[in-house]
From TrEMBL:
CDD domains: GGDEF. The keyword Signal does not apply. This is diguanylate cyclase. Residues 246-381 form the GGDEF domain. Pfam families: GGDEF (PF00990). It comes from Litoribrevibacter euphylliae. It comes from the Bacteria. The lineage of its organism: Bacteria, Pseudomonadati, Pseudomonadota, Gammaproteobacteria, Oceanospirillales.
């Protein structure tokens, strides 16, 4: 099972990220297999149905020959791909895509162009092509395929070609279960590929979207929210607190003497210290609180539905935890870092105070630094509230 999954992953990686030659080879290996199986089914159909049934045996023999030749041709085309040095060769991709169109048009003509099979192939092939190849390449092949399709129509209308030569009653081929089986078997390969490509494209698209969201909202060093995401969240929480008239607390954390940490232990150790501070903050907070990197060695914590008293407890719990967790450096030395914290709390009234609320927390932080660092200071205007 694991091996099967690995093969599927390898196949999907090649079909999506491989070179033009590799992508074409993948598709043509599938076509060779599908047509091979289709030819086997046709042989059984010929063996097991009697001459009296509604199928045209001569038409079936021709279809069997065409499918076998096309299967062999697909296999040869796949093998030729191995000898092509330019892996992004456009002419090889052109030959493959055009061959794909031709193979389909021919077989569908034998089965009956006005069938569900044609619908699936016509709708599916361009979608698969546009996902995997270049637009120009697909539009040229699609154009030539449609021209051939129209040519077949003209020949049929002028009675130069027989419509759906594999059935006796061409006006109502769908009344024949063997015809239906033949069409469904031919279509199943296209349908399978269409579902596979669709499913993989959507999964990849979702994965990329999640990645982009992660990268645009996360600080790469600490994996906390970055400043942009943090400020968005701050504004949302501020608005919510105004609406619900609930308390909102924030605190700004600045690591003490961080320049000295960098100068003494090196920048990598400084980075390590930043990560430890980030994890300690995360550990201290609730699920609903948000912490992010506000600047170089500064963090902002947003505590919704939290009054000053509770916020001081959280801030001080973090301050003590940080001081207690000495960081083990790669050379065995132990580094203790401390932080100064400026806190503000309020039941906000108006969005116009948003910046002022944060600026007051910043002032309180400045005060904490001036008072000797490694402490929590509350913004003057809210000392009573806390
Ligand atoms: N290693 C590392 N250092 C950083 C990063 N971002 C900012 N810094 C450093 O943090 C230091 C901040 O120094 P200062 O603003 O002078 O403050 P301080 O030395 O912490 O002193 P006080 O804040 O007054 O306690 C600078 O040396 C920056 O280079 C980072 O991502 N990694």
């Amino acid at each position: 099972m694991t091996q099967f999954r690995t093969r599927i992953t390898h196949f999907s990686n090649t079909i999506f990220d491989g070179s033009y030659v590799e992508k074409s080879q993948c598709i043509f290996t599938l076509i060779a297999l599908t047509l091979g199986c289709f030819a086997i089914l046709l042989s059984f159909t010929l063996l097991l149905t009697d001459a009296a049934s509604n199928i045209n045996r001569q038409g079936y023999v021709e279809l069997l020959e065409i499918s076998s030749v096309c299967s062999l041709y697909s296999l040869i085309l796949t093998m030729i791909g191995n000898f092509i040095k330019d892996r992004e060769s456009r002419w090889y991709a052109h030959v493959c895509v055009f061959s794909y169109v031709m193979v389909n048009v021919f077989i569908l003509f034998y089965i009956g162009v006005y069938s569900m099979g044609t619908g699936i192939a016509l709708a599916g092939a361009p979608i698969i092509g546009l996902i995997l190849f270049d637009r120009r390449l697909i539009f040229t092949s699609l154009g030539s395929g449609l021209l051939i399709f129209i040519a077949f129509n003209v020949f049929m209308l002028t009675n130069n070609l027989e419509y759906a030569p594999i059935v006796q009653n061409q006006a109502e081929p769908y009344r024949d279960p063997i015809w239906l089986m033949t069409m469904l078997t031919f279509v199943s390969g296209h349908l399978g590929l269409l579902v596979f490509i669709g499913h993989t494209s959507i999964s990849r698209w979702k994965e990329r979207e999640a990645q982009v969201t992660f990268l645009s909202t996360t600080d790469p060093l600490t994996h906390l929210s970055n400043r942009r995401h943090l400020m968005e969240h701050y504004q949302q929480e501020y608005q919510r607190a105004i609406r619900q008239q609930s308390p909102l607390s924030i605190f700004l954390v600045d690591l003490d003497h961080f320049k000295q940490v960098n100068d003494t232990f090196g920048h990598l150790s400084g980075d390590e210290a930043l990560k430890v501070a980030a994890w300690t903050l995360k550990d201290t907070l609730r699920e609903t609180d948000l912490v992010g990197r506000y600047g170089g060695e500064e963090f902002l914590v947003i505590l919704p539905d939290t009054d000053g008293r509770a916020a001081i407890q959280v801030a001080d719990r973090f301050r003590r935890a940080l001081q207690a967790n000495a960081i083990e450096l790669p050379d065995g030395q132990r580094l203790t870092i401390t932080a100064s914290i400026g806190l503000n709390t309020s039941i906000p009234k108006s969005l116009t105070d948003l910046d002022h609320f944060l600026a007051s927390a910043d002032k309180a932080l400045y005060q904490a630094k001036n008072n000797g660092r490694n402490q929590v200071t509350i913004a003057v205007e809210n000392e009573q509230a806390a």
